[in-house]
Amino acid sequence: MFDALSNRLQDVFQSIRGETRLTETTVENALREIRLALLEADVNFKVVKAFVDRVRDRAMDQAVLKSLTPSQQVVKIVRDELLALFGDAKGGLTESSARPRVILMLGLQGSGKTTTTGKLAKWLVKQGRHPIVVSTDVRRPAAIQQLAIVAAQAGVRVHDPAGEMDPVVRAKGALAEARAVGNDIVIVDTAGRLHIDDELMRELVAIKDVSGPADLLYVADAMTGQDAIKSAGEFNAQVGVTGVVLTKIDGDARGGAALSVVSVVGVPIAFVGSGEKLEDFEPFHADRFVSRMLGMGDVLSLIEKAEEVIDAGDAQKLEAKIRKGGFTLEDFRDQLRMLRRMGPLEKIMGMLPGMGGMKELAGQKPDEKQLSRIEAIINSMTPAERKQADILDGSRRKRVAKGSGTTVEDVNRLLKQFVEMQRMLKMVGQMTGEPIAAPLKKKKKKSPFSLMK
Amino acid sequence: MGFLDKLKQGLQRTTQQFVDKFEDIVQRADAPEARTRDVDVETAEALEEILLMADVGVAATDQIVTAVTKRSRRGESLRELVKQEILRVLMAVPREPHSQIVMRGKPQVVLVVGVNGVGKTTTIGKLANQLRVQGKSPLVCAADTFRAAAVDQLQIWADRAGVDIVRAREGADPAAVVFDAITAAKARHRDVVLIDTAGRLHTRTNLMSELDKIRRVASKEVAGAPHEVLLVLDATVGQNGLAQAREFTSVAGVTGIVLTKLDGTAKGGIAVAIAHELALPIRYVGVGEGVDDLLPFSPYEYVDAIFQEKW
Fold it and tell me: Between 3.30.70.20, 3.40.640.10, 3.40.50.300, 1.10.357.140, what CATH number should domain B108-297 receive?
């Protein structure tokens, strides 16, 4: 999401990085670029103005200009100020002892409330909770069905009394059902409309009054423009908001407006949703986002993602195999699958420090298709071939190519690179008597990339 | 007091202050003795702020502000000047005369595309109703086989508008549904096919190529189809709207924009940016949830609307 913004900011920093001495003009030029970058990212006009003024004040300080590393200092100032802008509050949900705990989802039409309700439910299940969901959107055609479907996908209970068309009664009913059945969280999806609608606001307040929510999450579309502030402010004033969920950040929208909500309306960002799958949902970490924006990478998120999909036992087994030189095409395929389970390659690449800045890479983005092709080739082999690649003679290769819809050259290339990789892994295994768990992780990231070239 | 607190406090008053400030500036700039003087820097800055806050974008704003400051005034009011400049941007785009659907194909195939949650299905419902009222016989095609309950939503709209719908089960190939719909339209002698597609982010290459497939299938069945490709944009969208328009145009060949949800406080200034940079015409605006709330776009009315007192 932040690619374009971070690219621009990095250009700015690149331009001043070489300077051993910063003059007021260079800082002023950099500030102009920053201002433009932020405005194009839809950051609220006033926020941009205040931000630029503040950075200028601090950067023009003689102590900074005369220091040994002025440009690094400026980068640091920008980083600090961005952090201040996004709020230092931790993401996720606040502490609450309420049982059942009620979460009210608010937002404009089309911001992604229903989908987010499903994602949040799924996330809570992963945390060991037992949520129940209810839709109070009796207006939009098929909204109730949509939530029912999403809930089924998330594997959570849904409260849906057929024919009940009173939003307040529906919310109350869900609470009662949660108490009866023993659900510890009730997520209430509400109708979205344009915030100028007084009727909706009254309805939301009524739902809030009967359900006593611990969290009121405002769902904001990362693509919204300057109007985001107005609507979020309105929801906050009339119903109350405890946190923002930023959705659709997987596009190239820069989300500046939604992020401005934090500093203008004064509510923290609780979660971010990034894709069409229910798993694409995580608590928001301001510091990591700022780092990613500035092209410093987001290693923490990467490690967390890796831990989510990599089974410790499997990793050990693999390590032993590598040490013995018994790394097969099957193991390779497993690694590939593991890597892909971490999410789209681009997303992962974005988390690697420095990767965001490598614009040359933009032309040769890691191709998901290429990975599918490699997997297809391996899948088209017999188990015996996978265990022992050298039995693949010409005729077998022809069969594999046919089976996987690729060419013999593709198969040859894969095998050649595999042999190369095997050789290197063997060397690493022999060189280090030490456990090689750490380099192993790195290899997981590296191997498919090297194969693609 | 910290920087953030100050900012917060300042912004809480923004809306009101904003209106007052602009009124102030307009009044000053439009005082009888000032009307023949050129626009000064302070006014230009205020103007810039207003346009940026309306999502008009940096490039278009620059052009408009520069044009306004460069013009020597002969007694026009500031509002008039700005309106003229925005109109100039909007009118530079080639458009159909009445911004209505013109029947060129048999059947006329209209593809409706856009990112998630902008109101594609609703727009199709309204459009179908409008066409039926005009004496045409539209058929809607539920090619959004991805989003849960999207087909049901379109079904409800089709029932409301009293038009035929061609649908398939969830998860079916959208291009196949389009094929079925066009075949059905030919057999039943319907003159317009409105295709509802799944919302997709313009950055998803695989989903975007699905649109390409739909286009190919349509063009095989009817010469020149799709005759119209309408990109639906939410009026609250920010500068990302430009990226959306660019991508959808390059993949799906967008021929016009539908600006929805204009009934909120958003001004949909992105339309000006799109006209400025991509020369795409705005065809319709959605102004409410009723079946009649889809209007042909008029640049004059639009400029009047975004330039109401309530800036």
Answer: 3.40.50.300
Out of A42, A150, A250, whose CB is closest to B239? A42
Residue A95 lies in a domain: no
Global pTM reads 0.69
User: What residues contact residue A183 under an 8 Å CB cut-off, 6+ apart?
Assistant: A100, A130, A131, A132, A157, A177
Dist. CA B242–CA A213, nearest whole Å: 38
Q: Whole domain around residue A340: which residue ranges?
A: 302-452
Helical segments of A380-453, H only: 383-387, 394-404, 408-431, 437-452
Which residues, numbered 118 to 177 in chain B, qualify as contacts with chain A under a Cβ-Cβ cut-off of 8 Å? 118-119, 146-150, 152-153, 156-157
* CB contacts < 8 A (A, B): 150
In the numeric block, which tokens belong to residue B75? Answer: 């007694």
CA distance linking residue A394 with residue A386, whole number of Å? 15
pLDDT in tens, B1-44: 444 454 444 344 344 444 555 667 777 777 766 776 777 777 88
**Is residue A29 located within the same domain as residue A159?**
no
The verdict on a CB contact (< 8 Å) between A223 and B241 is yes
pLDDT tens profile A91-126: 778 777 778 899 999 988 778 889 999 999 999 999
- Determine which helix (DSSP H) or strand (DSSP E) holds A187, and give its type and residue range: strand A185-189
**Mean pLDDT for all residues in chain A:** 78
**Last residue within a domain, chosen from A16, A51, A86:** A86
Domain boundary among A270, A295, A320: A295
Over the stretch B42-72, which tens digit does the pLDDT of each residue have?
788 878 888 888 888 888 998 988 888 887 6
- A322 lies in the same domain as A448: yes
The pLDDT of residue A151 is 92
Nearest beta carbon to residue B153 from set A142, A230, A233 = A142
Nearest to B238 among A85, A257, A266 (CB): A257
Q: Which of A276, A345, A365 to mutate to test the interface with B (most CBs of B within 10 A)?
A: A276
Fold of B9-91: Four Helix Bundle (Hemerythrin (Met), subunit A) (1.20.120)
Residues A362 and A234 grouped into a single domain:
no
Collect all residues of chain A within an 8 Å Cβ-Cβ radius of residue B242: none
The count of domains in chain A is 3
Give domain status of residue A96, yes or no. Answer: no
What is the pLDDT, as a whole number, of residue A346? 62
Is B224 within 8 Å of chain A by CB? no
Name which of B55, B149, B261 is nearest A145 (Cβ-Cβ). Answer: B149
CA distances from A342 to A48, A199, A280, A374 (A): 35, 43, 10, 17
Verify that A214 and A315 share a domain, yes or no.
no
**Do the bridges between strand A269-273 and strand A281-283 make them parallel or antiparallel, or are there none, so unpaired?**
antiparallel
Task: Give me the interface pTM, i.e. the ipTM.
Answer: 0.70
Reported for B40-45, long-range contacts at CB under 8 A and 24+ positions apart, including other chains, are B43/B78, B44/B68, B44/B69
pLDDT value at position B123?
93
Structure tokens at B54: 């309306």
The reply to whether A117 and A235 lie within a common domain is yes
